[in-house]
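Section 3.1: Structural characterization of target chains.
Under the original work plan, the team committed to producing a structural model for every single-chain target entering the pipeline before any wet-lab resources were allocated. The record below documents one such target. The sequence was received from the expression subgroup and is listed exactly as submitted; it comprises 688 residues.
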Amino acid sequence: MKRIFRNTFCVLQSFLFLVSSFSVYDSAFKVWVDRAALRLSSDTQPKFDTITDEALQISREEKEQCRKWYQEHILTAKSPAYNFTVGGKQFQNHLSDWEITIGKESALGEVYRGGKTTYVTLKHRKSDITATVEATLYEEYASCDWTVFIQNNGSENSPIVNNFYAADFTFNCGTADIYFSKGSNSDNDDFELMKSAVSPIKTVFNANGGRSSSFLPYFNLCGKKMNAVMAVGWTGQWYTSFSQNIGGVHIKAKQEYFKGYLSPDEKVRSPLVSMTFYSGSNALKGFNTFRTWESECVYTESAFPVTCTLLAGEFDKRNTDQLVEFIQNMPQQQCDETDFLWMDAGWYEYNEGWYDGAGSWLPNKARFPDGLAPISEAAQKRGMKLLLWYEPERCCKGTRVYNECIKHPGWLVECDDNTNLVNLAFDGACDYLGDLVANSIKDNKVGFYRQDFNFTPLNLWQEADKTYFNNRKGFEENHYVTNLYRYLDKLLEVNPGLIIDNCASGGRRLDLEMSRRSIPLWRTDYNCSTAEGVIKDDAITATQYATYGISFWLPLNGTGLNAFTEYADRSLLTSCSQRSGYQAVRDQMEKNYFPLTNGGLDTTSFHAMQFGDGDEGTVLIYRREDVKEKTYRLIMNGLTPNQTYRIYDVDFSSETTTKTGSQLMNEGLSIAIEECPKCAIYLYKAVK
């Protein structure tokens, strides 16, 4: 009977995937179908066992397992993890058609932080195609990643290249469960974690309209024989699939639509794929190993937990003198607890509102006659820097970016609604925009560059395939996304120490390549208020749930809300916070993450999370508005059993409790929370 039910679910799930494939890009219906297909066979309340701090440490065996897999599937062509087809012949099935050269391994950190990089060159014996695999081993983190580049070195068009998979291999893990999360779709359950047994019928995850609205491109495979967290880096229409076979799970990852010849000297690339290996049956080991690798090797060195305070939003009309006066009058304690002052949309020239001024990127002369540098300087005198909003890829008619791009064929993809796309697929457009924005950042003395992206590009890319790339499928997207990374890299290079905020309508461009360059300060637009400042009824509960879900994957993330009670402030606590006064908590949230009680969106249930390591950390316990119980049993995680810890409520810091890690992870601690709603914050520290 159990098998009949499972087979029925698989058939229904396959039908929903089929319906999704014919749905309109970026439609609410497509997102609903994608998520409904996975919800059929998924657990949205997965439980996690206790794990000690010692078990969380990356072992020699895990490092060796990663190194061995990397050598067998990335550095040799005996069983390559990637695949593509040239002239109708699949690489993996015609290895003799390729001359393979393995380059010298780089010094540690020479190319990517914490890693040693090797370039594998594959020369096609029957054409002028050359493929290059950029592969990096982060041995101390039991992680590796790779990207495949294909170039036509000839003087004529190449044979057709298609089925271009960054990943196409069987992961020999035996039967496995897969953990994954919803993406950002401005819903109250954004980033909800799910767990599902991998089915023999292919399970598909992909972007929606070129952005990560349906699901995040992060996956934790917990198998009977082997485990790994896999991540994909592609800020476009990424695609992944998983299917159970006899040996394990077959994994595929690619840019979803790609097929065509390469013109002379043309170069294309695959998405970036990473694998983080871990042992044991506790998926928390995988999540936290991945978080550690991301914090120490993926993020830029300038990225760190920050606190931002809103200085001016899209409806703000204040001028230089008024904003400088505001900064000068800020209480010293608030300045000490704030890293960046946030100026959002509306600082530039516009007509009817902030939205129609995209493409100006010159400070409004009437309000800011000397630019924004005086405001930045005022902030710097108080120990803070300026965060400034841009949306560089969109430009409206009449703006200087529009007026320049319209002069050059291909630099602009025009739209009827004036949502015009600066076509980064063209190198000239990318260089022009990069110079303009890099100089704007420098002139205005910006410390934190906030990049928004308020439309879905896939249909525009596909139209541009026809107009500019001779109907070669996916080539516009491939060149666009590649140059998007080049654009962001230029901003970082020209402005040392710059931090980039990745917004995109609130968290719709979250992927591994963007994590190499940015962090998301505004992870979902569900927290947006109306023009009158009204928030959604369940926004605070949804914020707690979003933190619960996104923290499995991204140690650095932030959010905000137009609510200013203590309960709201504590519900908004993240590693990148918009609430001052909680630095001790904020700094722990980049460390290990332990979900304690998943209250979901249920206001009658407690909700609790723990962040930290074996030495110190924090616990957030939310007694929501309809919870009747006044006592919460705190069972902690990730501690050293025989270590003694001192733990206390930040509201009653003089009242400390001393217990061993074993006691805290087994017997727990009875926490009385009289107020409702209320968030109790506990800090703990090992007694040395």
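Residues 589-686 form a domain with the Immunoglobulin-like fold (CATH 2.60.40.1180).
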